[in-house]
Each structure stands twice: as structure tokens, then as C-alpha cells.
Write a structure and sequence with these properties.
The complex is a heterodimer of chains A (about 160) and B (about 775). Helix content of chain A is about 35%, strand content about 15%. Chain A has about 160 residues and is an alpha+beta fold. Chain A folds into 2 domains: about 80 residues, Beta-grasp domain (Ubiquitin-like (UB roll), Roll), CATH 3.10.20.30; about 70 residues, [2Fe-2S]-binding domain (DNA polymerase, domain 1, Orthogonal Bundle). Chain A has a 5-stranded mixed β-sheet, sandwiched between helices. In chain A, helix 2 packs antiparallel against helix 5. In chain A, about 55% of the residues are buried. Chain B is of the alpha+beta class. Chain B has 4 domains: about 160 residues, Aldehyde oxidase/xanthine dehydrogenase, molybdopterin binding domain (Aldehyde Oxidoreductase, domain 4); about 180 residues, Aldehyde oxidase/xanthine dehydrogenase, a/b hammerhead (Aldehyde Oxidoreductase, domain 3), CATH 3.90.1170.50; about 120 residues, 2-Layer Sandwich (Aldehyde Oxidoreductase, domain 4), CATH 3.30.365; about 200 residues, Aldehyde Oxidoreductase, domain 4, CATH 3.30.365. Chain B has a 7-stranded mixed β-sheet, sandwiched between helices. In chain B, strands 7-15-14-13-8 form a 5-stranded mixed β-sheet. Chain B has a 4-stranded mixed β-sheet with strand order 18-26-27-28, sandwiched between helices. In chain B, helix 18 links the parallel strand 27 and strand 28. The radius of gyration of chain B is 28 Å and the shape is globular. In chain B, about 60% of the residues are buried. Classes of the chains: A alpha+beta (about 160), B alpha+beta (about 775). Chains A and B meet through helix 2, helix 3, helix 4 and helix 5 of A and helix 1 and helix 18 of B.
Chain lengths: ~160, ~775
């Protein structure tokens, strides 16, 4: 076993610090050391997007980032999106529009959509479909997800 | 049913808040202290003898607790079961880990148990296996040829089973035919790809001798029974929990080697043990779907009337049977009448062993193959006879008065109105206009194609007599002393939303608030009996059981209320969750008040048992037969071979709808998978049995930008098979869509002389077809 290293990552506004092997993946740090299991693993190859989290404000696939690469950085996971009991407009819209079935891809899907809406507050359907291309969903056929992102976009604009 | 408030309403799902917040618990999110982790060494060879396995070095690796091989465990764990039967079935011994030889890439060879999954993975590299490669056969047609490599020495012909169905005088039909149209068809292998792979966590308590297994499964109760047999563990000391399950599509309607292996390891090591499947393993060692090739012949009159149909097929079984493997191809045979009157039908299918992973149930399971055969060949007939594909379908539909409609394959279609669904779809699509547009564009060298599929499918599985392991379902409704309602169902939802739709059913029946109802499923210690979720059965069978249990509760409540109100039960009216004497609504008593009385049990009618709960087990008298029309419009670019789906209309009839929002979701997801099969997906093994599509980088799953906006509509023809009138909707999108897409592409390419293309319709195939036509024209 390789020598471990102490890293500190701010996750959802809380500072976390652990001794880790340099090879530890960020997703396993989040799930197994910090015990936030809302971030899922779906393919281990950066294709499915189930493990998507925000690293310093950018959506990344945490199954192909090492935990040590996030040392000193800020991570947002699905657990950090709601304000207490108040769901984020995206979470609200996914619920409202039936944008999820089994729910496994949902946390990653929502965070990808979150990045999309930060960049494009008024996305067209085509832009949404392109924006979530890196996230696979096998249940919904994506249509209700697209609807949800559109609805959330409206909500988020109204909040500004 | 009483006055409906919630059944039929677009209610948003009650399971969603935990899911959108990342607070749900899938298997890998269930954490037990001191859990050990398993990694499995899998064969890189498709066929090889195992000369020796050396595990000493791996056993000594840091963090490793145990390493086991096939020889170590073969006397302790029984074989992986197959429950689908047929008289000619040959069942090779399917051990949990390979003993003498491996038969497919991914076959389990050894398992490492370690303190964490990284340590377990590391140790896999230290296991030394000496393989002697054997000749491989991966193509089922080649496996049947004389001189083929033999997979199981007991059966040198590689035949797993033969199944035939024959009804009517087919010879005469073919003699009398004006035209016989034939087509060779390929239903390629597909990977189900639930985004959550499989996963198992087992905990054996040596004091209590109790084994609890958390598994990502569709069938916790069936799994409990099978695990108890495999592990020789008394069934009353086995508990199976299906926690949150991240999709399945039939792939978790099974009993897998790893489920028994992990449970065995926990029992041996007296520690919780967990195995989480990686995506690569999921491609190699989770069942595949379809995998059928066949030849269809249809006999027709000059006006397009169908006289008879025959289909000869080869089913690619893989190296072993899984739970329902041999039961899938017969479903194709049963559904070969499609939505048409076909007086004689025959099917002969040969199941063939190959050096590949097993095939089994994947969304549709045998029925998409039937629909594809029928809907493709009817389009071929239309093309040959110069009849519009709409007209030929209308001509052969059974009429409304023909229902219940008996098919030549021996099924009785419960109810249907095929013309209505077709008419509605044509109207929504603007069919006539589309045909004109197609003509106009062709003149500009653009190739629009319009494809139809008028499908019928078999759902609501099903009467126990027709099922390999029971076709009933259980439901329990319990009103707690505080008035909250607990509903238990033997179905095992994994995305379908029955925590919501079953609550809607009970809320209406008992007149209670939706928010006061909790639907519990997936734990065999809580839900005492059940079959599971598959075959579009949960609502039709499980929903009915829940409804009947609620009715029983209501009837008991009526008697208690009558006793309290000092009235005759028949003089009470039930409204808004209250029983009251006719004409005296103010003195009513609520179900909640009655529940408390029932529990206190001081004021109950004589000889009545305390408590307010009831269980019902529903045994359906028949399957149900959802149907519909899908219309797909594509544009094909002959220069690149690329297909763009421009428009997609689906009119589906799943009987009575409990929650339209959920039905739309099922249809949309189903269509995405059906389009996926038509255009992109396919599990590919090379001739050495190497899996070429072993990751999501190689296997093309539909993405958001690949799909058009789907236009959905419904007709509603209730089934008489259950009191809900619901037929089921889980698979119709997949079944209906695949032929619609292929028919559309073939239609687009008619000017190129194309009459058929095998799936998936990759650009390269289309490009070659268009190019060869161009070249032929130039040679002219």
C-alpha cells in the first residue's frame, strides 16, 4: 500500500479532512470517507455521469478525479443543493415533471443541469439536450428531464 | 370502484424527495460496521480448461481475509437455478464459480474477500490461473453446424432445447396463397444497462443463525426461496431486502451466482460481506436480452388478407441458463399473431449454447421479437403487393366485436380497439400530409421515411398456471391505531412509482389522505409473500391485490362502525372516509376512529378478531393485452448513412390509467430503449468470444440529444381481467417502437431498392446499401 497523505476538502460548506491513499478516487472519498452516498458510481469511465459533482463551480465526474486533486478545493454534492428542507428549483422541477424514475442517475443529472443553468439561464430544448449529453438515464427517455430543466430555468430566473 | 378522486390523476411521486436529495439507500449506500468487500476474478477466455489456480500469494496480500475458488465452494453452494421449464430442456451444471472450465468471458473463477474494495481488487492480480484455451463458438448458427466446438460434453450438438408451436393447416394456407413473402431477421443481443449495476450485501448472524441479504433485485421473495435452496439455509432464516433499486429492465429478474456467493461468504466468515458490480462486469456477467435470428414466411391473399405465418428461429442462449432463459423464446411464439387475425401460425425455435453470457428477460422479453417479426413482415407484404401499410393493417385487425379474441397461438386477447388507436395516431401524425411531403422531398433528393407499428403485447403476468414460479400477487392494507395506513405489496418497484400509484388506489377506496398512506415493499420479513415486479404486472396484479385488501378493510370497518352506531351494516353509507347511518351524515365515524376501536377491541361485534388489516392474494384469470400504434418519421442521409428521427407519435392503450404522469414516463423510457435497439445498441462478441462492447464507451446507449420530442396520446380500453381495468405499461414503449423505426428507415430507402436492413441501423450499413445502389445505377 502506498503512503497516505492528509487532504482537506470543503464539501457542501463543511471542511473535511482525511488520510488517503494517493490513488483514492474523489467519488470514494465522498461516499466512503465523508459518508455522503448521494453521489453514485455508474460506469467508472466518465461516460454515464452518475458521479457528477461540482468542483470549484464546474461539473466534473468524480469517478475519474483523484481525491488528492481536490485537496484544498470546494466540492458541492447533491446533498448540498437544498437549503435545509427547501428544495432547489431543479430538485423541485425534477419532482414536479417526473424527471426521474429509479433515481440513480438523478443526483448527477441535476448537478449537470445546475452547471448548464449557471452558464445558460435561458436554454433552448436543444441546448438542454446537448448540456446533459454527458449524463445517461436509462429510465426516462430524457423528455421529462428536459421539461424539468426548462421549468427550473424559469424558476431560477424569477429568483434573481 | 367508488367515486374516484385520485385514481386517474397526475399525482407527483411520493418517492422523489429522498431521491432528488441524494438521501435514498441503494445497496452500496447500506453501511454495516465491519463489512468486508468482495472482488471477483473473471475469465479472460471464452472457453478454456482450468489446469490450476494458485491463490497463496493473493491470500497473503495486505487486507485480504479470504480467497475462494470453485473447488472450495462447489459442495457448499448448489447450482445457479433455472425455473422456466420445457420438456426438451437440457440444463448444464451451472456452478457459482467455475470448477474445471470456463465457458464465457466473465465466467467467475475466484473471489477475494478483503477489508476494502481496493485491497480486494489488488489481490485479484496475484491469483495465478493456468488456462488451457479450448476452441470457441460464439455464433449460434455455427454452434449448430457439424464439427462445431462443443460447450457441454453431454450434448455434442450444442442444443439447449427445441420448442414448437403449430396451429391450423399451414400447408393449405401456403398452397392457397397468392403470394408468400419471406424475410430473414436478426434480433441482436442487447445489454439492459441499469445505471446502477448489481450489488449484494449479506449479513449472517451466527447466534440467531439468520441470513439477511440486501440485493439489487426485482424479485426479493423468489430470491429468498432460491437462496435457501442453494445455500441449504432454512427459508425461515433467510430475509431478502431489495432496497432502492437503480433500474433493472429485467436484468435483475434473476438469481445470480454472486448473490449466493456473497451470502455464503458472510455465513462462513461471520461478517457482513459486500460485492458491488463494476460496469465492465455488468457487460460481461449480467444477462443480455434478445439474441434471436429467424426466418419468417407469411402467406397472403391478393388483397393482403393474411392466411398463415411461420417462423423458424435460433435463440442464442449463451453458455448457461439463467432463471428464465428458456422461457423467453416461447413468448415470441405466443405473440406471433400480433394485432391481426392469422388463422394458422407455427414457430420452431432451437435454443443453442454459445460461449457467451446467458440471455434472459430484457424489457419485453421475447415479445419485442414477435412484434418485430410481425410488423416487419406485414410491411414487406404491403410493399410487395403495393398496398398502403395502413390499409393492410386495418384489413387484418380483429374488430371490436371479435373480443375476447382467440389467436391461433392459443391466447385470448382480453379487450382491444386497434382501429381507434391507429386512427388517432394517423390523425396526430398528419399521415396523408406526411406522405405528400415524402414525395415532394424525394424529388429534391431527400429521403423521408414513415414507419408504423400496430402492436399488441402480453402483460399483467399472469395466471399462475402459465408462469414458472407463480403469477399471483399479494397486498396488505393495515390501518394503524393512530389512523395512518400501511400498505404492503409483494411487487418490488424500482422506479415505476408504485409507492404513489398504490397509495392512490387505497386513498380512493378508504377515503383517506394520500399523505397518511405509506407503501412498503421489497423486504421479505415485512411483506410476507410476493412474486415481484416484471412482465408489466405490478399494477394489474399487485395493484388489484392492494385494492382487494383495502375493500376487505372497508367491509370490516363497516361492521365495527355499525356496532358502534348501533345500526345495521347495510344501513350505513360510506363517504369521504366516514361511515354514517343513511340520512344522519353528521354522526359519522371515520376509518381512523374505527381503527382505534379495532385495536382497543373493547367494543367489537361478537366473535370479530381485533385489529384493522387485511391481506388479499390476487390470482388473475388471464394475461392482459395492451396495444397501440406508433408512427416514426425519419430522414436518412444517403451520403453519410445517418438516420435522424424527426417525429415520433405514440398512441398507447394500457387500459385504465391510475397515474397518467407515471404512464407517460414508462412509455417515454420504453420508446428510448426501443429506438436504441433499432438504431444503435448491440452487444458484440468476436468469433473468439471476446466481448467487444465491454464498456459504455463501446456500447451506444441513447443520449438526450439522440432522441426527438415524443408525442404521446392514449386510448383507454379497460381490461375485464381485473377490477382496476388496468393492463400494464412497462414494456409497451419498447415493444411498439423498434419496428416503427426500422419500418421508417426501410421506407425512406425504398428508392434505393432496400426491402430490409438488420438492426442496429448503423450509418455504415445504410451508407453501403445506398452506395451499392448508386454504383448499380451507374453501371445501369
Amino acid at each position: 500500500m502506498a503512503a497516505t497523505r492528509r487532504i482537506t476538502i470543503n464539501i457542501n460548506g463543511v471542511s473535511t479532512s482525511h488520510e488517503v491513499e494517493p490513488r483514492l478516487l474523489l467519488v470514494h472519498y465522498i461516499r466512503d470517507m465523508v459518508e455522503l452516498t448521494g453521489t453514485h458510481v455508474g460506469c467508472e469511465t466518465s461516460v454515464c455521469g452518475a458521479c457528477t459533482v461540482m468542483l470549484n463551480g464546474a461539473a466534473i465526474k468524480s469517478c475519474t478525479v483523484l481525491a488528492v486533486q481536490a485537496d484544498g478545493e470546494e466540492v458541492l454534492t447533491i446533498e448540498g443543493l437544498a437549503q435545509g428542507e427547501q428544495l432547489h428549483p431543479l430538485q423541485e422541477a425534477f419532482w414536479e415533471c417526473h424527471g426521474l424514475q429509479c433515481g440513480y442517475c438523478t443526483p448527477g443529472m441535476i448537478l449537470s443541469a445546475y452547471q448548464l443553468l449557471l452558464r445558460l439561464p435561458r436554454p433552448t430544448e436543444e441546448e438542454i439536450r446537448h448540456g446533459i449529453e454527458g449524463n445517461l438515464c436509462r429510465c426516462t427517455g430524457y423528455q421529462h428531464i428536459v421539461d424539468a430543466v426548462q421549468q427550473a430555468a424559469g424558476q431560477m430566473r424569477a429568483r434573481r | 370502484m367508488p367515486l374516484s378522486r385520485l385514481v386517474g390523476a397526475r399525482i407527483k411521486r411520493r418517492e422523489d424527495p429522498r431521491l432528488v436529495r441524494g438521501l435514498a439507500h441503494y445497496v452500496d449506500d447500506v453501511r454495516l460496521p465491519d463489512t468486508l468487500h468482495v472482488a471477483i476474478l473473471r475469465s479472460p477466455h471464452a472457453h478454456a480448461r482450468i489446469r490450476s489456480i494458485r491463490v497463496e500469494e493473493a491470500s497473503k496480500a495486505p487486507g485480504v481475509v479470504s480467497v475462494v475458488t470453485g473447488i472450495d465452494i462447489r459442495d457448499s453452494i448448489g447450482p445457479v437455478p433455472v425455473v422456466a421449464q420445457n420438456p426438451t430442456l437440457r440444463v448444464p451444471l451451472h456452478t457459482v464459480l467455475a470448477v474445471d472450465k470456463v465457458c464465457y468471458v466473465g465466467d467467475g473463477v475466484a473471489a477475494v474477500v478483503a477489508q476494502d474494495s481496493y485491497a480486494a481488487q489488488d489481490a485479484l492480480d496475484l491469483i495465478q490461473v493456468d488456462y488451457e484455451p479450448l476452441p470457441v463458438v460464439s455464433d449460434p448458427e455455427k454452434a449448430l453446424a457439424p464439427g462445431s466446438p462443443v460447450i457441454h460434453s453431454e450434448w455434442p450438438d450444442n442444443v439447449a432445447f427445441r420448442w414448437t408451436l403449430k396451429q391450423g393447416n399451414l400447408a393449405k394456407a401456403f398452397r392457397d396463397a397468392y403470394r408468400i413473402v419471406k424475410q430473414h431477421l436478426v434480433h441482436q443481443r442487447l445489454a439492459p444497462i441499469a445505471i446502477e449495476g448489481r450489488g449484494v450485501l449479506a449479513r449472517y448472524l451466527p447466534g440467531e443463525k439468520e441470513l439477511t441479504v440486501w440485493s439489487s433485485t426485482q424479485i426479493p421473495h423468489l430470491l429468498k426461496t432460491q437462496l435457501s435452496i442453494m445455500l441449504r439455509q432454512p427459508e425461515n432464516l433467510v430475509r431478502v431486502i431489495a432496497p432502492e433499486v437503480g433500474g433493472a429492465f429485467g436484468s435483475k429478474l434473476n438469481v445470480y451466482a454472486e448473490e449466493a456467493l456473497v451470502a455464503y461468504l458472510s455465513r462462513t466468515l461471520n461478517r457482513p460481506v459486500k460485492w458491488i458490480e463494476e460496469r465492465r462486469e455488468n457487460f460481461q456477467a449480467t444477462i443480455h436480452g434478445r439474441g434471436q435470428v429467424g426466418d419468417v414466411e407469411i402467406a397472403v391473399k391478393k388483397d393482403g388478407t393474411i392466411l398463415g405465418l411461420q417462423y423458424r428461429a435460433i435463440a442464442d442462449i449463451g453458455a448457461y441458463h439463467q432463471l428464465l432463459t428458456p422461457g423467453i423464446p416461447p413468448l415470441t411464439g405466443l405473440m406471433l399473431s400480433g394485432a391481426y387475425k392469422i388463422p394458422c401460425i407455427s414457430m420452431e425455435v432451437t435454443g443453442v449454447f454459445t460461449n457467451k453470457m446467458s440471455t434472459d428477460a430484457y424489457r419485453g422479453a421475447g415479445r419485442p421479437e414477435a412484434t418485430y417479426v410481425v410488423e416487419r413482415i406485414i410491411d414487406r407484404v404491403a410493399q410487395e403487393l403495393g398496398i398502403d401499410p395502413v390499409k393492410i393493417r386495418q384489413k387484418n385487425f380483429p374488430q371490436r366485436r371479435d373480443f375476447p379474441f382467440k389467436t391461433a397461438t392459443g391466447l385470448i386477447y382480453d379487450s382491444g380497439n386497434y382501429r381507434a388507436a391507429l386512427s388517432k395516431a394517423l390523425k396526430l401524425a398528419g399521415y396523408e400530409k406526411l406522405r405528400k411531403e415524402q414525395k415532394r422531398l424525394r424529388n429534391q433528393g431527400r429521403y423521408l421515411g414513415i414507419g408504423l407499428s400496430t402492436y399488441v403485447e402480453i402483460s399483467g403476468m399472469g395466471p399462475s398456471a402459465a408462469m414458472p414460479a407463480g403469477g399471483w400477487e399479494s397486498g396488505t392494507v393495515r390501518v394503524e391505531p393512530t389512523g395512518k395506513v400501511t400498505v404492503l405489496t409483494g411487487t418490488s418497484p424500482h422506479g415505476q412509482g408504485q409507492e404513489t400509484s398504490f397509495a392512490q388506489i387505497v386513498a380512493d377506496e378508504l377515503g383517506v389522505d394520500l399523505d397518511d398512506i405509506t407503501v412498503v415493499h421489497g423486504d421479505t420479513a415485512v411483506v410476507t409473500s410476493g412474486i415481484g415486479t416484471f412482465g408489466s404486472r405490478a399494477t394489474a396484479v399487485g395493484g388489484t391485490a392492494v385494492l382487494q385488501a383495502a375493500t376487505k378493510v372497508k367491509e370490516k370497518a363497516r361492521k365495527i362502525a355499525a356496532n358502534i352506531l348501533e345500526a345495521n351494516p347495510v344501513d350505513l353509507v360510506f363517504s369521504g372516509g366516514k361511515f354514517a347511518v343513511k340520512g344522519v351524515p353528521k354522526k359519522g365515524i371515520t376509518i381512523q376512529q374505527i381503527a382505534l376501536e379495532a385495536h382497543l377491541a373493547t367494543n367489537l361485534p361478537k366473535r370479530m378478531e381485533p385489529g384493522l388489516s387485511a391481506t388479499s392474494v390476487f390470482e388473475p384469470s388471464n394475461f392482459t393485452f395492451p396495444f397501440g400504434t406508433h408512427i416514426c418519421v425519419v430522414e436518412v442521409d444517403p451520403k453519410s448513412g445517418e438516420v435522424t428521427v424527426k417525429k415520433y407519435i405514440a398512441v398507447d392503450d394500457c387500459g385504465k390509467v391510475i397515474n397518467p404522469l407515471l404512464v407517460d414516463g414508462q412509455i417515454q423510457g420504453g420508446i428510448a430503449q426501443g429506438i436504441g435497439q433499432a438504431l444503435w445498441e448491440g452487444v458484440v462478441y468476436d468469433e473468439n468470444g471476446q466481448l467487444l462492447t465491454g464498456s459504455l464507451m463501446d456500447y451506444a446507449l441513447p443520449k438526450a440529444k439522440d432522441l426527438p420530442r415524443l408525442e404521446l396520446a392514449r386510448t383507454e380500453t379497460p381490461t375485464p381481467v381485473n377490477p382496476l381495468g388496468a393492463k400494464g405499461v412497462g414494456e409497451s414503449g419498447t415493444i411498439g417502437s423498434t419496428p416503427a423505426v426500422v419500418n421508417a428507415v426501410v421506407d425512406a430507402l425504398a428508392p434505393f431498392g432496400v426491402v430490409h436492413i438488420d438492426m442496429p441501423l448503423m450509418p455504415e450499413k445504410i451508407w453501403r446499401l445506398c452506395r451499392s445502389k448508386d454504383a448499380a445505377d451507374r453501371r445501369g
